[in-house]
Amino acid sequence: MNIVFYILLAFTPLINLAIMKEVVNLVVDIIQNKGSISKGILLLIFQTLISIITWSAESVHKLIEIKMKQKIDFSLQKIIIQKANSLPLVFFDDHESYNTVERASAAGERATSILTAILEIFKNLITLTGYLVMLYSLHWILPVSIILLIFIPLWVNIRIGKQKYNQAYEQTPTQRRISYLYNLLIGKHAAKELRLSKHDNYLSSLWEKYKWTNNTEQFNLEKKAVKSNLWVFSVKDISNLIFISSILYISSKGRLTMGDYFIFSQGITFSLSMIGEVAQGISSIFEGAIYINDYYDFINQEEEKLDANLKNPLIFKKEIKVEKLSFQYPHSNRKTLDNISFEIKCGEKIAIVGKNGAGKSTLINCIIGLYKTTEGKIFYDGVHINQINPLNLRKKISAIFQDFVRYQLSIRKNICISDIANIDNDEKISRVVKETDINSLIEKLIHGYETELGTAFSGGQELSGGQWQKIGLTRALFKESEIIILDEPTAALDPIAESDILSKFIKSTKDKTSIFITHRLGICKEVDRIIVLDNGRLIEQGNHNELMALKGEYASMFKSQSDWYQ
């Protein structure tokens, strides 16, 4: 359908030019009392109809193009979203990965411009062919000379396009930093500290520095482009002058009518303009193709292996066994985890403790399969984790992390997003919210479960840090799982409140295997076993009494925190 409009729009300039030739000749005849005014009016009416048809076609074509662009943008963004969610978690631990995603997103926008450029070239070539055929009837050297002139703007545009791509590629990290600082300065996240410490001027100066560094580089490249294009336009205009002068000379010999002079001179001017547009279109395709390579660089990233053909479902009835586990992040020269071995019996309550940076969260990410181990093995009931269908494994695990997502959605959606199939199961929701003591807050809200959380959108209700963490705990409980992992999600609560909440959590999950990651040890008295990490190594394990008797790292940490629980 869109092709039809491009063909129609390609022929209308040629038709208009032919009509104008007749109008000009008729005007000359009328001045000399040889022409018919009625014929002139008919020609003008016909020209007006062509103009209306052209405008209508352009309007419909524009709507079709907008719809096409929306569909392509949607499809490409959906592919990028799906790809991002299929990549291993470790991909996002490398800063260069964010540059890759940024470039892929920018490249996706170029796909529409490539398709548009192809269609525009198709249209312009039809129109240009009509002009060149017309000029050929006067002399063959005119169309040949005009065709040869395409190589000048084509070479310049391709060269500038490549330079702009290289600049955009190199500026990606700086551009991400500019966006980060800008959002920091205008958003809520840093608003309190900015007002209290008044370091907004410092951050603003950093933003200005990076912003103007990029702007200056872009401006300098634009200056080069202007200089190059000035040369291109000069060649085009001088060529136009020479060609039209030759037509003027031929006209002076009486070989052309006024109408002939008009259409040939206009044909030359329009042809040279079309040559520039075709060259621009070809260079746009070339430039877009370079950007599209960035899109495919991202799309071709190795995905997380979710082999649906694995025949081993997770039947967790005995234990999780970790044997000589080590893990090292990409581009790191040291092991985050080093030679760790332990077992977790089915139904056990385990606390993994240690100082910040000890490797607690990394260990959990390995156990649940989000990170692939560098060395060592993990078994579920004797089956290697690599032989278990990952999708099946994750269905059996519920986790709430320290940096859990605070969805700017309703309370219902915040809780039920872990098991979206039960979003309308009010009985289940009611039972779970009581177990985390968040029911008292929900009952006070006018819209109850439908209350929007956060201040990102109109009517949102902001919660305290502790209330948000209770929402997170409720989300973890709502999912029907056999293994529950809590990675310091209650850090915003005071130690006594945290200990109370976790005690209730242990009781409500008595039939499940629970793993608590914490550096606050109040809950450790109630768990079956404690694993102590230090600098990525397992240095102690046992229950509370055993580790206190050992008088090692755990005992030292617990004594330093004992005043919190008095």
UniProtKB/TrEMBL annotation:
Residues 320-560 form the ABC transporter domain. GO terms for cellular component: plasma membrane. The keyword Transmembrane helix applies. It is a multi-pass membrane protein. It comes from the Bacteria. GO terms for molecular function: ABC-type transporter activity; ATP binding; ATP hydrolysis activity; ATPase-coupled lipid transmembrane transporter activity. It holds the Pfam family ABC_tran. Keywords: ATP-binding, Cell membrane, Membrane, Nucleotide-binding, Transmembrane, Transmembrane helix, Transport. SUPFAM superfamilies: ABC transporter transmembrane region (SSF90123), P-loop containing nucleoside triphosphate hydrolases (SSF52540). The keyword Transmembrane helix applies. The chain crosses the membrane at residues 36-57, 140-158, 230-250. Residues 1-287 form the ABC transmembrane type-1 domain. It is found in: Cell membrane. PANTHER family: ATP-BINDING CASSETTE SUB-FAMILY B, HAEMOLYSIN SECRETION ATP-BINDING PROTEIN. This is ABC transporter ATP-binding protein.
